[in-house]
Amino acid sequence: MVKRGDVRIYELYWDLYLIENLLLDGAMLVLTLLLMHKRICFMRVAIAAMLGAFMSTFVLVSGIRFGLLYILILFITGMIMMKLSMKQKEWNELMQGMVYYFTLMFAFAKLQQVSEWLLGGRVSGIVLVLLVIGIMSIVLSYMIYHNRRKRQKPVYSVELTERGISVELMALLDTGNTLREPFSGKPVSIVEGDVWRSIMGGVISEKFKVIPFYSIGQEHGILKGMEIDQLVIKQDDRQIVQKNAIIAFYEGKLSNDRSYQMILHQSLLI
Q1: What's 236's DSSP letter?
Q2: 3-state secondary structure at position 216
Q3: In which element (H, E) is residue 240 found?
Q4: Each residue's pLDDT tens digit, 109-132
Q5: Are 111 and 103 in contact, with CB atoms under 8 Å apart?
Q6: Do residues 33 and 83 make contact, with C-beta atoms less than 8 angstroms apart?
Q7: What pTM did the predictor assign?
Protein backbone atom coordinates (compact mmCIF):
# COMPACT_ATOMS: atom_id res chain seq x y z
CA MET A 1 0.00 0.00 0.00
CA VAL A 2 1.60 3.26 -1.17
CA LYS A 3 0.54 6.85 -0.63
CA ARG A 4 1.23 9.13 -3.61
CA GLY A 5 2.19 12.79 -3.51
CA ASP A 6 -0.58 14.20 -5.68
CA VAL A 7 -3.69 12.49 -4.33
CA ARG A 8 -6.14 14.42 -6.53
CA ILE A 9 -4.55 13.15 -9.74
CA TYR A 10 -4.70 9.55 -8.55
CA GLU A 11 -8.33 9.98 -7.50
CA LEU A 12 -9.14 10.85 -11.11
CA TYR A 13 -7.02 8.00 -12.47
CA TRP A 14 -7.66 5.37 -9.81
CA ASP A 15 -7.34 2.54 -12.35
CA LEU A 16 -3.71 3.51 -13.05
CA TYR A 17 -3.13 3.76 -9.31
CA LEU A 18 -4.53 0.23 -8.91
CA ILE A 19 -2.25 -1.21 -11.60
CA GLU A 20 0.81 0.60 -10.25
CA ASN A 21 0.19 -0.67 -6.72
CA LEU A 22 -0.44 -4.18 -8.04
CA LEU A 23 2.99 -4.26 -9.70
CA LEU A 24 4.71 -2.62 -6.75
CA ASP A 25 3.10 -4.85 -4.12
CA GLY A 26 4.01 -7.93 -6.15
CA ALA A 27 7.65 -6.85 -6.44
CA MET A 28 7.94 -6.03 -2.73
CA LEU A 29 6.31 -9.30 -1.67
CA VAL A 30 8.71 -11.30 -3.81
CA LEU A 31 11.68 -9.40 -2.37
CA THR A 32 10.33 -10.00 1.14
CA LEU A 33 10.09 -13.74 0.55
CA LEU A 34 13.61 -13.79 -0.88
CA LEU A 35 14.95 -11.98 2.19
CA MET A 36 13.23 -14.57 4.40
CA HIS A 37 14.53 -17.47 2.26
CA LYS A 38 10.98 -18.64 1.61
CA ARG A 39 9.74 -20.60 -1.37
CA ILE A 40 7.92 -18.27 -3.76
CA CYS A 41 4.53 -19.28 -5.13
CA PHE A 42 3.70 -16.66 -7.74
CA MET A 43 -0.01 -17.45 -7.63
CA ARG A 44 -0.14 -16.72 -3.90
CA VAL A 45 1.95 -13.57 -4.37
CA ALA A 46 -0.37 -12.37 -7.15
CA ILE A 47 -3.46 -12.84 -4.97
CA ALA A 48 -1.80 -11.01 -2.06
CA ALA A 49 -0.67 -8.18 -4.38
CA MET A 50 -4.20 -7.82 -5.76
CA LEU A 51 -5.54 -7.50 -2.23
CA GLY A 52 -2.94 -4.85 -1.36
CA ALA A 53 -3.63 -2.89 -4.55
CA PHE A 54 -7.39 -3.04 -4.01
CA MET A 55 -7.10 -1.81 -0.41
CA SER A 56 -4.72 0.99 -1.44
CA THR A 57 -7.20 2.14 -4.06
CA PHE A 58 -10.09 1.87 -1.61
CA VAL A 59 -8.27 4.04 0.93
CA LEU A 60 -7.46 6.61 -1.78
CA VAL A 61 -11.00 6.82 -3.21
CA SER A 62 -12.72 6.76 0.20
CA GLY A 63 -10.71 9.76 1.36
CA ILE A 64 -9.27 8.07 4.45
CA ARG A 65 -6.17 9.98 5.58
CA PHE A 66 -3.43 9.16 8.04
CA GLY A 67 -4.81 8.31 11.46
CA LEU A 68 -5.87 5.40 13.64
CA LEU A 69 -8.22 3.92 11.02
CA TYR A 70 -5.55 4.25 8.35
CA ILE A 71 -2.96 2.45 10.51
CA LEU A 72 -5.47 -0.28 11.40
CA ILE A 73 -6.32 -0.90 7.74
CA LEU A 74 -2.62 -0.92 6.88
CA PHE A 75 -1.78 -3.44 9.62
CA ILE A 76 -4.67 -5.83 8.91
CA THR A 77 -4.08 -5.72 5.16
CA GLY A 78 -0.36 -6.36 5.63
CA MET A 79 -1.06 -9.32 7.91
CA ILE A 80 -3.49 -10.88 5.43
CA MET A 81 -1.06 -10.32 2.56
CA MET A 82 1.70 -12.10 4.48
CA LYS A 83 -0.60 -15.02 5.30
CA LEU A 84 -1.59 -15.29 1.65
CA SER A 85 1.93 -15.12 0.23
CA MET A 86 3.61 -17.33 2.85
CA LYS A 87 2.86 -20.99 3.47
CA GLN A 88 4.43 -20.74 6.92
CA LYS A 89 1.96 -18.98 9.17
CA GLU A 90 3.69 -18.75 12.56
CA TRP A 91 3.12 -15.44 14.27
CA ASN A 92 6.80 -14.50 14.52
CA GLU A 93 7.40 -15.14 10.80
CA LEU A 94 4.32 -13.15 9.83
CA MET A 95 5.56 -10.22 11.89
CA GLN A 96 9.05 -10.55 10.41
CA GLY A 97 7.55 -10.57 6.92
CA MET A 98 5.54 -7.44 7.67
CA VAL A 99 8.65 -5.65 8.95
CA TYR A 100 10.55 -6.52 5.77
CA TYR A 101 7.62 -5.60 3.53
CA PHE A 102 6.87 -2.20 5.09
CA THR A 103 10.57 -1.36 5.31
CA LEU A 104 10.91 -1.98 1.59
CA MET A 105 7.80 0.09 0.90
CA PHE A 106 9.12 2.93 3.07
CA ALA A 107 12.45 2.86 1.24
CA PHE A 108 10.62 2.93 -2.08
CA ALA A 109 8.51 5.91 -0.97
CA LYS A 110 11.64 7.82 0.02
CA LEU A 111 13.21 6.94 -3.32
CA GLN A 112 10.11 8.27 -5.02
CA GLN A 113 10.35 11.57 -3.13
CA VAL A 114 13.99 11.99 -4.07
CA SER A 115 13.33 11.17 -7.72
CA GLU A 116 10.43 13.66 -7.86
CA TRP A 117 12.67 16.35 -6.37
CA LEU A 118 15.48 15.62 -8.83
CA LEU A 119 13.57 14.72 -11.99
CA GLY A 120 10.07 16.12 -11.62
CA GLY A 121 6.79 14.29 -11.25
CA ARG A 122 6.28 12.96 -14.77
CA VAL A 123 9.86 11.83 -15.38
CA SER A 124 10.15 10.31 -11.90
CA GLY A 125 6.99 8.28 -12.54
CA ILE A 126 8.55 6.76 -15.64
CA VAL A 127 11.77 6.04 -13.76
CA LEU A 128 9.89 4.33 -10.92
CA VAL A 129 7.89 2.20 -13.33
CA LEU A 130 11.13 1.14 -15.00
CA LEU A 131 12.58 0.43 -11.55
CA VAL A 132 9.68 -1.85 -10.64
CA ILE A 133 10.00 -3.66 -13.98
CA GLY A 134 13.75 -3.99 -13.37
CA ILE A 135 13.21 -5.43 -9.89
CA MET A 136 10.73 -7.98 -11.21
CA SER A 137 13.10 -8.91 -14.06
CA ILE A 138 15.98 -9.46 -11.65
CA VAL A 139 13.82 -11.53 -9.33
CA LEU A 140 12.45 -13.61 -12.20
CA SER A 141 15.96 -14.20 -13.56
CA TYR A 142 17.12 -15.27 -10.11
CA MET A 143 14.23 -17.70 -9.74
CA ILE A 144 14.86 -19.26 -13.15
CA TYR A 145 18.58 -19.62 -12.39
CA HIS A 146 17.89 -21.05 -8.93
CA ASN A 147 15.37 -23.59 -10.27
CA ARG A 148 17.80 -24.70 -12.97
CA ARG A 149 20.53 -25.17 -10.37
CA LYS A 150 18.18 -27.25 -8.25
CA ARG A 151 17.29 -29.45 -11.21
CA GLN A 152 20.95 -30.08 -11.98
CA LYS A 153 21.81 -33.36 -10.29
CA PRO A 154 25.36 -34.62 -9.66
CA VAL A 155 25.24 -37.72 -11.87
CA TYR A 156 28.36 -39.81 -12.51
CA SER A 157 29.30 -42.74 -14.65
CA VAL A 158 29.92 -45.76 -12.40
CA GLU A 159 31.46 -49.14 -13.23
CA LEU A 160 30.44 -52.16 -11.15
CA THR A 161 32.55 -55.32 -11.28
CA GLU A 162 31.63 -58.75 -9.93
CA ARG A 163 33.25 -62.10 -10.84
CA GLY A 164 35.09 -60.50 -13.75
CA ILE A 165 31.90 -59.05 -15.26
CA SER A 166 31.75 -55.25 -15.48
CA VAL A 167 28.84 -52.97 -16.21
CA GLU A 168 28.54 -49.19 -16.46
CA LEU A 169 25.60 -47.30 -14.98
CA MET A 170 24.68 -43.69 -14.38
CA ALA A 171 24.54 -42.94 -10.67
CA LEU A 172 23.22 -40.00 -8.65
CA LEU A 173 25.22 -38.78 -5.66
CA ASP A 174 22.59 -38.40 -2.96
CA THR A 175 23.66 -36.44 0.13
CA GLY A 176 20.63 -37.88 1.90
CA ASN A 177 21.79 -41.48 1.46
CA THR A 178 23.32 -42.46 4.81
CA LEU A 179 22.62 -46.17 4.44
CA ARG A 180 25.30 -48.49 5.89
CA GLU A 181 25.68 -52.24 6.27
CA PRO A 182 25.01 -52.88 9.98
CA PHE A 183 27.88 -55.32 10.70
CA SER A 184 30.77 -53.85 8.71
CA GLY A 185 29.61 -50.23 8.74
CA LYS A 186 30.43 -49.94 5.04
CA PRO A 187 28.47 -47.39 2.97
CA VAL A 188 25.69 -48.86 0.84
CA SER A 189 24.78 -47.64 -2.64
CA ILE A 190 21.44 -48.54 -4.21
CA VAL A 191 20.92 -50.10 -7.65
CA GLU A 192 17.68 -50.83 -9.48
CA GLY A 193 17.09 -54.56 -9.07
CA ASP A 194 15.77 -55.04 -12.61
CA VAL A 195 18.81 -53.36 -14.13
CA TRP A 196 21.19 -55.51 -12.10
CA ARG A 197 19.39 -58.74 -12.96
CA SER A 198 19.11 -57.94 -16.67
CA ILE A 199 22.80 -57.13 -16.99
CA MET A 200 24.42 -59.48 -14.51
CA GLY A 201 22.03 -62.38 -14.96
CA GLY A 202 20.68 -62.13 -11.43
CA VAL A 203 24.00 -63.05 -9.85
CA ILE A 204 23.69 -63.07 -6.07
CA SER A 205 26.51 -64.99 -4.47
CA GLU A 206 27.34 -66.08 -0.97
CA LYS A 207 28.10 -62.41 -0.33
CA PHE A 208 24.36 -61.78 0.03
CA LYS A 209 23.44 -59.05 2.53
CA VAL A 210 20.29 -57.99 4.36
CA ILE A 211 20.29 -54.26 4.96
CA PRO A 212 17.77 -52.56 7.28
CA PHE A 213 16.72 -48.99 6.49
CA TYR A 214 14.54 -46.22 7.84
CA SER A 215 12.62 -43.70 5.79
CA ILE A 216 9.94 -41.04 6.09
CA GLY A 217 6.50 -42.61 6.13
CA GLN A 218 7.92 -46.06 6.78
CA GLU A 219 9.28 -46.83 10.21
CA HIS A 220 11.66 -49.53 9.01
CA GLY A 221 12.26 -51.88 6.12
CA ILE A 222 14.68 -54.40 4.61
CA LEU A 223 16.68 -54.20 1.38
CA LYS A 224 18.38 -57.17 -0.23
CA GLY A 225 21.96 -56.57 -1.28
CA MET A 226 25.37 -58.04 -1.84
CA GLU A 227 29.05 -57.28 -1.72
CA ILE A 228 30.68 -56.85 -5.12
CA ASP A 229 34.33 -56.92 -6.06
CA GLN A 230 34.69 -53.29 -7.08
CA LEU A 231 32.85 -50.02 -7.58
CA VAL A 232 34.51 -47.28 -9.65
CA ILE A 233 33.17 -43.71 -9.83
CA LYS A 234 34.43 -41.91 -12.92
CA GLN A 235 34.88 -38.22 -12.25
CA ASP A 236 36.30 -35.64 -14.66
CA ASP A 237 40.00 -36.04 -13.93
CA ARG A 238 40.07 -38.97 -11.52
CA GLN A 239 38.55 -42.30 -10.62
CA ILE A 240 37.38 -43.25 -7.15
CA VAL A 241 37.73 -46.98 -6.50
CA GLN A 242 35.95 -48.82 -3.70
CA LYS A 243 36.94 -52.47 -3.23
CA ASN A 244 34.40 -54.92 -1.82
CA ALA A 245 31.64 -52.37 -2.17
CA ILE A 246 28.13 -53.09 -0.95
CA ILE A 247 25.09 -52.43 -3.10
CA ALA A 248 21.41 -52.82 -2.25
CA PHE A 249 18.67 -53.67 -4.74
CA TYR A 250 15.66 -51.38 -5.10
CA GLU A 251 12.62 -52.98 -6.70
CA GLY A 252 11.40 -50.01 -8.68
CA LYS A 253 12.59 -47.01 -10.69
CA LEU A 254 15.02 -44.61 -9.05
CA SER A 255 14.59 -41.97 -11.76
CA ASN A 256 11.42 -41.14 -13.65
CA ASP A 257 13.35 -39.86 -16.66
CA ARG A 258 15.83 -42.78 -16.56
CA SER A 259 18.77 -40.35 -16.13
CA TYR A 260 20.31 -42.65 -13.52
CA GLN A 261 19.85 -46.23 -12.29
CA MET A 262 21.86 -46.05 -9.10
CA ILE A 263 22.16 -43.88 -5.98
CA LEU A 264 25.61 -43.46 -4.50
CA HIS A 265 26.30 -43.16 -0.79
CA GLN A 266 27.12 -39.61 0.30
CA SER A 267 30.55 -40.55 1.67
CA LEU A 268 31.95 -42.00 -1.54
CA LEU A 269 32.99 -38.66 -3.05
CA ILE A 270 34.12 -36.89 0.12
Answers
A1: S
A2: coil
A3: strand 239-250
A4: 777 777 667 666 555 556 666 776
A5: no
A6: no
A7: 0.46
